[in-house]
């Protein structure tokens, strides 16, 4: 009887030792989970969570020790002030890295918090060039930036759509205004004239006043820098006002939700761009879409493949460094080079994705079709 008790005690001690050796590494994720673009934020969070869950299922070893990854999510409400608050909350929670934010306007101020804490921030969605131009060593992105995207959009409007006169509207966020500025440069460089430059907000729903002003300039194309929550209603109001100009927007409006919000106002005159390949042309896109659907019973919106690769880059760097400590794994994050869902994942000296691609879509047969 005594031997059995001793044996049980030894077994219990062994289990306890094994559990003690399994280190928990927290990876943060931040996106707007409430508000008008919560669907995009949830998509981003889902991509990060899926990467963490799949890595855990395969088994993660860092520095010769088994590790359990723990996802810690926060809602920044697409608000810069809330963004810094939740960034500090993640730092205080002891996360070793962060995937996020979605909006450039939240990513940029939050990046200072992460830099001060010495942890890495990899955004799968924030495209404003300023983010990676601040000199923070731990900032990276897995999506092309607005300089790349805007130059393509401006040239596309002038050359492919044959626009001589272009009107531009932006939502005055770091993302929307930044993309609009770069699109304006690209359009002018391609010989188009900017006949109007108007702005709204990322909370607005009534665009009649600015659209009425723009109608008087008779533009060939109206470009909108902003998100789908504004782009959809804007298209509806363009139709109500009898504006026949082609409509062009960036990745923030290139979603299934944009189509729903626009309703019968959307037509083949609507175009958008994505800072990446269509999911069916991503090297790992078809398989990722299937796994995502199985896990969440939902379709990919926009950013989940980029978030998945962002989280994978972090995990890969930790494994190569043999440590989850930022000071040790960030140098390895700068050197990652692996085939991701979206394509090859490697970063330049600023932290931008080296092989960022841009795809332009047209609305056809009820969906966005790549051109």
Automatic annotation (TrEMBL):
Pfam families: Peripla_BP_6. Transmembrane segments: none annotated. Keywords: Amino-acid transport, Signal, Transport. One of its GO terms (biological process) is amino acid transport. Residues 25-366 form the Leucine-binding protein domain. It comes from the Bacteria. Residues 1-20 form the signal peptide. Belongs to the leucine-binding protein family. PANTHER family: AMINO ACID BINDING PROTEIN (PTHR47151:SF2), LEU/ILE/VAL-BINDING ABC TRANSPORTER SUBUNIT (PTHR47151). This is Probable leucine-specific binding protein. It comes from Azoarcus sp. (strain BH72). The gene is livK4.
